Amino acid sequence: MKIAVSGKGGVGKTTLTAALSKLFADKGRKVIAIDADPDTNLASALGIKDADKITPLVELKELIKERTGSTSDEYGKFFKLNPTVDDLPEKYSIYCNGLRLMTLGTIKRGGSGCACPEGVMLKALLNHLILQRDEVVIIDMEAGIEHLGRASVRAVTALIVVVEPGKRSIQTAFQVKKLAGDLGIKTIYAVGNKVMNNTHRVFIKNALGDIPLLGMISYSDRLIELDLKGEAAFSDNNKLLSEVSEIIAKLEEYVK
Q: How many domains does the chain have?
């Protein structure tokens, strides 16, 4: 399984990524969870202590210069387009709760797909993780897939777009679908989140049109409590784990 999770900011991508990672690890699968979202909150959602002290890979300037020959600070300097990255998952990941976490961060200038040393490094690493590793890889992404190259996009088992009851998140889902379609990925699914009642369920189902719906996650005050305490999103949260287990089962039906 190589899963990319996308969607509008604030819809719950990180919560879903954390729960998916936990459940696959509980099944005995080797899991690498990748935080490629600008907010870099996945470590906290996984219950990793001192998550705020983790430095995203894109900010490790010495490492980027070592592997590419330059950084974005050195304007106009040539850099390698195929840096060595196969050793990075072991060297720059944290092991916790039966799985590995890598915090990549994102490019904060020139767009997330900018042709800079940091962008080249991220794309090379994600290509390696998706194309060459045998673990379950789950990527918490922003509302786009610019970090992925064409080869890695086509190798993704599933691109899951998280939506909430609201037109803006549905619009983002269709934008992501179009972008993914342009790059050749056809395995696009949706997960509804923050669902409070049947009206929300009906809205999401109808609004998604031809995007297959894997399942829905209920709105939960428990998630807010856990966030305030700095605990894992799935800690003593059986309802979340049960709903995401059903989402995994549905996904496995689709990708058989």
A: 1
Q: Domain span at residue 68?
A: 2-254
CATH number, residue 120: 3.40.50.300
Structure tokens at 189: 């699914």
Q: pTM (2 decimals)?
A: 0.89
**What are the strands, taking DSSP E only, across the chain?**
2-6, 31-36, 94-96, 99-103, 136-141, 158-163, 188-195, 213-218
In order along its 256 residues, the chain shows pLDDT tens digits of 899 999 888 889 999 999 999 999 999 999 999 998 877 789 999 988 877 778 888 888 888 888 888 877 666 677 777 888 999 998 888 888 789 999 988 765 444 445 688 888 888 888 898 888 889 999 998 776 666 666 666 788 899 999 999 999 999 999 888 888 887 777 899 999 999 999 999 999 999 999 999 999 999 898 888 888 888 889 888 999 999 999 999 999 988 7
